Amino acid sequence: MTVQPSSPESIPTGMPMERETRYDPPAALTALQTHPLRRIKYYPEGVEGWLATGHAESRAILADPRFASGEPFVHSPTEMPHIFVAFSQQAPPGFFIFDDPPEHTRLRRKVAGVFTVKRLKKLEPHIAHIVDQRIAALREAGPGADLVSQFALPVPSLVICEMLGVPYADRDQFERDSAAMIDLSASVEERNEAMGRVLAYIHQLIPRIRANPGSDMLSALVADPDLSDAEAAGIGLLLLVAGHETTANMLGLGALSLLEHPEQLAQLRSNPDLMPTAVEELLRYLTVAHNGIMRVAKEDTEVNGHLIRAGEHVTVALQTANRDPAQFDQPDKLDFDRDPRGHLAFGHGLHQCVGQQLARIEMVIGLGKLLEAFPQLRLAVPVEDIPLRSDMAIYGVHSMPVEW
């Protein structure tokens, strides 16, 4: 094995998060792609690890079982933002994205069957009905209505609530705490407290579900003899939060990017059948999971000629991996004529997003019906006044007033 030396440049501290434009990764992060796998300091006091910005390197790390996701990052930050410190140190039982096999395999299997293409195909008419309802509510609210709170957030929230068996009437509580869980400006303690509130909420649903079970996912989890109540609640927490945050932000930011790319918008309006491909390209182009995925090497592992030692942490920057010119021609262009397959917006490997097919369906139906219902859809405020979610682990827009 020929091991390449680390980058001859100075070792950067942290992963750049400050964006200069609405849709592109931070320029300082893109600049680091000159060395697609490089040393990085996690904190100023010199705790070092690795940063993967290239597509091939990111894919290799995410697919390699020698990189674990279940070990917490034990160093406490001093001055750095909390972007590298997950709440995995306090993740509850059942929150399987921080587990590794065999525990990850056991828990993921409990829900994977619900998210198959075949099962979700049967849900499409009902998802379309939910989208129609939200379009009617948006129209009733009138010009100036917020596309995020009236449409982008309620669509996936309603869908996942119905699938889980969580009362949608309680959405204000769990949506507020879900947002707090991924607020990068909050302390780790504040994010953990928010997670604890959502978890407590799901726990208090369990006695009612046990007394009056339904055909929903939480009823199946609670009735599963292989799962404790704590594991059932932890799985429910994961699906509830992940089931609406990412898709809601893709719907909002996706709509905004279409309004700012009139040629691509016109292409979609003239050829609605292009929507599935357009959704894949929007997923690649926008990559709303913008704060990185952390892994730790379980043993000495060579990636692209670099030796990553056992115990060293690696952060995978999905947003630059999806803008890698070695993988995608003219990667900074939103192009509905390209084949965007192979993007890493949903991650890769055994931890790839279990709900990715549901997200795709919600986006195809949601954006398709939105464009059909409002042929003259446009922003009601200058685009510079749209507040961006640069402060959140899931990127997007906080609000988006529109008219038609």
From TrEMBL:
<keyword id="KW-0349">Heme</keyword>
<protein>
    <submittedName>
        <fullName>Cytochrome P450</fullName>
    </submittedName>
</protein>
<dbReference type="InterPro" id="IPR002397">
    <property type="entry name" value="Cyt_P450_B"/>
</dbReference>
<dbReference type="Pfam" id="PF00067">
    <property type="entry name" value="p450"/>
</dbReference>
<keyword id="KW-0408">Iron</keyword>
<keyword id="KW-0503">Monooxygenase</keyword>
<dbReference type="GO" id="GO:0004497">
    <property type="term" value="F:monooxygenase activity"/>
</dbReference>
<comment type="similarity">
    <text>Belongs to the cytochrome P450 family.</text>
</comment>
<feature type="region of interest" description="Disordered">
    <location>
        <begin position="1"/>
        <end position="21"/>
    </location>
</feature>
<dbReference type="InterPro" id="IPR001128">
    <property type="entry name" value="Cyt_P450"/>
</dbReference>
<dbReference type="InterPro" id="IPR017972">
    <property type="entry name" value="Cyt_P450_CS"/>
</dbReference>
<dbReference type="GO" id="GO:0005506">
    <property type="term" value="F:iron ion binding"/>
</dbReference>
<dbReference type="GO" id="GO:0016705">
    <property type="term" value="F:oxidoreductase activity, acting on paired donors, with incorporation or reduction of molecular oxygen"/>
</dbReference>
<feature type="compositionally biased region" description="Polar residues">
    <location>
        <begin position="1"/>
        <end position="10"/>
    </location>
</feature>
<keyword id="KW-0560">Oxidoreductase</keyword>
<dbReference type="GO" id="GO:0020037">
    <property type="term" value="F:heme binding"/>
</dbReference>
<keyword id="KW-0479">Metal-binding</keyword>
<dbReference type="InterPro" id="IPR036396">
    <property type="entry name" value="Cyt_P450_sf"/>
</dbReference>
